[in-house]
Structure formats: C-alpha cells, structure tokens
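User: Here's a structure from my thesis project, written as structure tokens. My advisor, Dr. K., wants to see whether a designed sequence matches the one we expressed. Can you design one independently, without my sequence as a hint?
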C-alpha cells in the first residue's frame, strides 16, 4: 500500500513539476495594430489616394448639384411663361437629374468603401504576416491585439511586441 502511495505521489510530483516547467515557457504578447498601421508608409499612401478619390467624386457630385440647381432656378424664373407641357417636361427632367444625383451619391460612398478595402487588404496582410513572424521568431504562444476589444485582461507577464513588429517593418 505504501509503495502505491509513494509511486502515486512521485508521479503527481513529476506531473506538477513538468507542468510548472512547461507553463513557465509559455509566452504571451500583445500588439497595438492601430499604432503600427498609422506609421506604415503604405497606409499613408492609402490616405493620399483616398483623399484624391474623394475629392474627384466630390467635384463630380458638386457639378451635378449645380446642374440640378440651375434647372430649378430656370424653372422658377420661367414658370409663368412655360406651357403645361413645358412645365411637366422640366419637372420630369429635374426629377430624373435629382434621382441621378442621389444614385451617384450612394454609388460614390460604395466606391470609396470598396477602394479603401482594396487598398488596405495588402497592408493588413503585410502587418499580420510580420506579427506572425515576430511570434514565431520569439516563441510566443499567442499575440493579442489590444484595441480589438477582445482582450479582457492583460497581465504584466504579457509582452508588448509592438516595438518588435515596428522594427521588423522598418518603422
């Protein structure tokens, strides 16, 4: 009976000590993606491209609104001289242009969103690839993103790998 007890305690001791040794090697890190991405030259280029794209679309939208306003002013100015058919024709023209302006606005918003996503995907892929490299190179089990809202607790044992990622990116 004593031998079973001693053997059991020995096995338990080995298990606990191996678990303790193993758990001491577990490395957790955290990174602030927002801080890094704002410093990446690729992201700064995205901002420039998006500003240019938005300005172009905004200029087109402004031109369409001016056309719509001109038609409205002309209609109001000549209302008394128009025949019923002319009024109806001008009202229909105004309505069609107004609809085109509204459609253009919605399409412009969608175009901007798709363009931004198209430009951001390669930058994010590059960043996440480097984060993975940092994790692999330094033996991290997990690296958490601190601004995602998913990290509920951050221990002092978790290492901020943001500087390592910035270094690997050359920023």
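Assistant: Designed independently from the structure alone:
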């Amino acid at each position: 009976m004593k031998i079973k007890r001693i053997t059991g305690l020995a096995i338990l001791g080995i298990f606990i000590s191996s678990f303790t040794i193993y758990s001491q090697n577990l490395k957790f890190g955290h990174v602030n993606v927002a801080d890094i991405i704002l410093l990446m030259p690729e992201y700064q280029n995205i901002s420039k491209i998006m500003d240019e794209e938005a300005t172009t679309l905004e200029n087109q939208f402004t031109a369409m609104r001016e056309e719509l306003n001109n038609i409205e002013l002309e209609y109001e100015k000549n209302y008394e001289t128009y025949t019923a058919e002319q009024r109806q024709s001008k009202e229909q023209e105004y309505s069609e242009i107004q609809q085109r302006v509204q459609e253009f606005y919605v399409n412009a918003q969608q175009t901007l969103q798709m363009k931004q996503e198209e430009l951001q995907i390669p930058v994010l892929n590059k960043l996440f690839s480097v984060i993975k490299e940092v994790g692999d190179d330094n033996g991290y089990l997990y690296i958490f993103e601190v601004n995602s809202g998913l990290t509920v607790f951050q221990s002092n044992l978790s290492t901020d790998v943001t500087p390592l990622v910035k270094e690997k990116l050359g920023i």
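When you compare it with your expressed construct, this may help: The two ends are 66 Å apart (CA to CA).
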